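Recap from last week: sequence in, structure out.
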Amino acid sequence: MTIHMHTLIYSAKIKITHVPVYTCGVCARYEPLPSIKRELGRLIGELENVIPGRRLSFAERNEWASVLKEVLSAGEFPGGFSELEESIREAAEARIDVLLDVYRLAVELADVKWMEETGSRLAQLAVQSAESAK
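Predicted structure tokens:
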């Protein structure tokens, strides 16, 4: 199995780009990463009233997809899977650091909505990190 960013087409009218998927090298079947399935399902549930022909980036909605998009767009990994894994880990840690800084600022400004949004984004990465540690 390989991992890459894929474009899904919902109801033949809406493109959802930057969806991280596993692809089977033998049968070419693909499946969204388990860690993003719930959020992808929520997005699809919200698409009922979206104008046909619209294009949405899943990476703009999901932190884990955003990190993977950033790393995978960097190109080749001559060190193989271990280099890719290390690049993903470093990018995730850097994103967590940025989000913690944003959260601290939201706390200082007493902006509850911003704190909740940032906390939710942090949780997306924390869940993935916990799953990876298993």
